[in-house]
Amino acid sequence: MDTAQVVIVGGGLEGLAIAWALAERGVTDIVVLERNTLCSGGTAKSSSVVRCHYGVPSLAAMAWHGIEVFAHAEDVLGADVGYRDVGYAVGVGEQNLAALRDNLAMQRSLGIQVEEITPADMSALWPTMFVGDFSAFALEPRGGVGDAYRTGMAYAAAARRHGVRIMQHATAVTLATGADDRVKGVETAAGHRIETDTIVLANGAWATALTTPLGIDLPVRAQRAQIVMVTSGEQLGAAPVVSDLVGLQYFRVEHSGEVLVGNSDHSSPEYTDPDTYRDHADAGTVEVVAQKLTHRFPAWSQPGVVNSYAGCYDVTPDYNPVIGPAPVPGLFLAVGFSGHGFKLAPAVGRLVADLLLDGASSDPAVDHQDFRFSRFADGRPLLSTHRYVGATEMR
Ligand SMILES: Cc1cc2nc3c(=O)[nH]c(=O)nc-3n(C[C@H](O)[C@H](O)[C@H](O)COP(=O)(O)OP(=O)(O)OC[C@H]3O[C@@H](n4cnc5c(N)ncnc54)[C@H](O)[C@@H]3O)c2cc1C
Predict the structure, then answer these.
(1) Distance 12 CA to ligand 1 centre (A)
(2) Burial 206-218 (b: 16+ CB within 10 A, else e)
(3) Residue 134: how many CA atoms within 13 Å on its side-chain side?
(4) Does 390 fall in a domain?
(5) pLDDT tens for residues 232-245?
(6) Atom number of ligand 1 nearest to Cα 173
(7) What's 187's domain CATH number?
(8) For burial by CB atoms within 10 Å, which of 252, 334, 361, 389 has the most?
(9) Domain limits at 206?
């Protein structure tokens, strides 16, 4: 029998950011259990887009904090984590122009650096892009792209330096509770038992396997996300990451010049098993990507598909995370990050440490109640204040 002050289940970006944030605040008697190898889950598949363009103020503020950490990662975590501030732009058509401006006003009120630019301005940044069906763009000069895997591994290394113990190939199979219904420990598949009175579940859609036996109906499931890598036939230089809310897609240029294309149309979600999903884009998806890109980049001379892969978002009904205590005392949830978990991770670590140690968020711009588990049962999901028509809640 082992003991720990805190056991974190899940060695992905969130679990590792939480471990580091707790350790920074002096809680170093922590065990992180990872059933596979570190950052091999959703973190490994992340497009790692950095943006603050959210319609939920807490999320925008959390993403803004994330940028500060990514930009100063060598000082904060002791390693460059691959953040590139190439800029992030979100483009909308006429029907979403008012929502865009309302969101920009909200983001500016939080101190986020953001500006509205015209389609012609955008053309100057992405010369081959057809912008005729956009009404405006929001540009975040400090947005861009990072590297979720490198960031997670930097958190792991920094947490280890504080003395955090990280166990790989260690699957948590049972959460034990005492007569008082409080958690009292974790057992792994190998029979290793760790006594603790605080367990943080940071294991995405896999968390339900541990919460269901405790009678907790956690509404988190895996949604397959397909990514297609393409070439343009052009010499593409650095350009902002673009969320195209007209075509419902996003794209960003890799160092190699290839373009990563992701889907932003979540009107027909494909829920799946996070252990057995198909790890390539379907032929139909590749065809849709080709059609959308032909429309968006008609001047590309030799467009072609390089390869594809798929990952799983761990989604909740409102596409926003659950960060807070579970109905079982001592059990804490940090799951359901959907397509947001990379950019939010530094703030998630900080928030979980705040809640476990102080019971409240230390950032006045981040209302921890937004992320409470009970919001689903209460019928009060966390929704954008200024929603985009056609873009679903993943925005
Ligand atoms: C295709 C794709 C694109 C994305 N793009 C972006 C983006 O551009 N920007 C952005 O901000 N976010 C993006 N995201 C989201 C972001 O990557 C995730 O939200 C984030 O990486 C999730 O981290 P996590 O630690 O919660 O989950 P994971 O990385 O999945 O980690 C959970 C870990 O728990 C482990 N585990 C599971 N069960 C157990 C158990 N019983 N015992 C021990 N360990 C267990 C798993 O092996 C896994 O390693 C994207 C996600 C995907 C899939």
Answers:
(1) 6
(2) bbbebbeebebeb
(3) 27
(4) no
(5) 998 888 899 999 99
(6) 41
(7) 3.50.50.60
(8) 334
(9) 2-45+149-219+318-375
